[in-house]
Design goal:
The chain is 43% helix and 20% strand. It is built from 13 helices and eleven strands.
């Protein structure tokens, strides 16, 4: 209890010192990183590497918790409701903080979270079954005009899905049907659930290696390093591309000192040789964009997606 005899100034100093001591102890209990998708994709792998680094740096338990559903909104909502203390961190893909909010599908708003940092630029691409005579967007358009072609994706309001639909409209064709999945992968094509899927290299690597699927457009700002012959969507259908990304976020109001500690561990993980190996394997751009730069990036992406969703 604070001594009632202390002056106002002394009380303020004491409170500041007490708060500083509390912050200096972070983290003093287990830390969770929520991934709002099933295990195995790129953001899950990166989150686990960062989680291991937090545990190493601060000698506290740290774990990744997968909470799929609602196109990522369920897991993000749980992070939002956890409180601004830094013990529950979200590894969010861009659509969670842009498209879902813009479409009114999220209970939280644009200012609900602050970025710890951006970690991933996704090697997202459009993939077709290998038995389809399709190798680029022009061939897909020609084929789809005479055949039923169904699309699998991560969510109707996600930027990659919107890009795909707008590209089809621009090229003068329609998909015969479309469906959202928590995860699009080789099984989505092999099972016949879709003929074409929007997915990442990480999720499609097995059927890329086996030859059961092929990428026909990279949803990136430049060609994917391990797929140099696959033209970007922007190259093939100018004006519809918006790159996919992911990063670490905490609830707004989390103390800056806590954010800085999380960021320090995240940056160490992102600069590690293991992360460089992962980038080489997946073709992703795995780098660390911290603080104010990340906040400016998110604001810019929000504006881009807002424009995309009105087209």
């Amino acid at each position: 209890m604070i001594n009632p005899g202390l002056t106002g100034a002394a009380t303020a100093v004491l409170l500041a010192l007490t708060a500083g001591a509390a912050l200096a102890e972070y983290p003093e209990r287990p830390v969770e990183i929520v991934v709002p998708w099933p295990p195995g994709d790129l953001e899950d792998v990166v989150a686990r590497m960062i989680s291991d680094q937090i545990q190493t740096d601060y000698d506290v338990p740290s774990a990744v918790v997968n909470q799929p559903g609602g196109g990522g909104v369920i897991g993000a909502t749980n992070v939002w409701q956890s409180g601004p203390d830094g013990y529950t961190i979200g590894m969010f893909t861009g659509n969670i903080l842009t498209a879902h909010i813009i479409a009114g599908r999220a209970p939280f708003g644009q200012d609900a979270f602050v970025p710890v940092g951006i970690a991933i630029n996704y090697p997202m691409a459009l993939w077709v079954r290998a038995d389809l005579p399709v190798h680029d967007m022009a061939e897909l358009a020609a084929y789809a005009r005479d055949h039923a072609v169904s699309l699998g994706h991560f969510g109707f309001n996600g930027p990659p899905t919107r890009q795909t639909m707008l590209a089809a409209q621009t090229l003068g064709f329609e998909f015969s049907g479309s469906a959202a999945f928590d995860e699009t992968n080789c099984n989505t094509l092999a099972s016949g659930d879709a003929d074409v899927v929007v997915s990442t290299v990480q999720l499609m690597r097995a059927c890329l290696d086996s030859g059961d699927a092929r990428p026909i457009a990279a949803y990136t700002s430049a060609r994917i390093g391990i797929l140099p012959d696959v033209a970007t969507l922007e190259e093939q259908v100018p004006g519809v591309a918006a790159p996919a990304w992911a990063g670490l976020f905490v609830t707004a109001g989390t103390p800056q000192e806590v954010i800085d500690r999380i960021a320090a561990s995240a940056e160490r993980a992102m600069r590690s040789p293991a992360m460089a190996d992962l980038a080489q394997t997946t073709g992703a751009v795995l780098d660390w964009m911290p603080g104010q730069a990340a906040a400016a990036f998110v604001a810019d992406q929000y504006a881009r997606v807002q424009t995309l969703m009105t087209q």
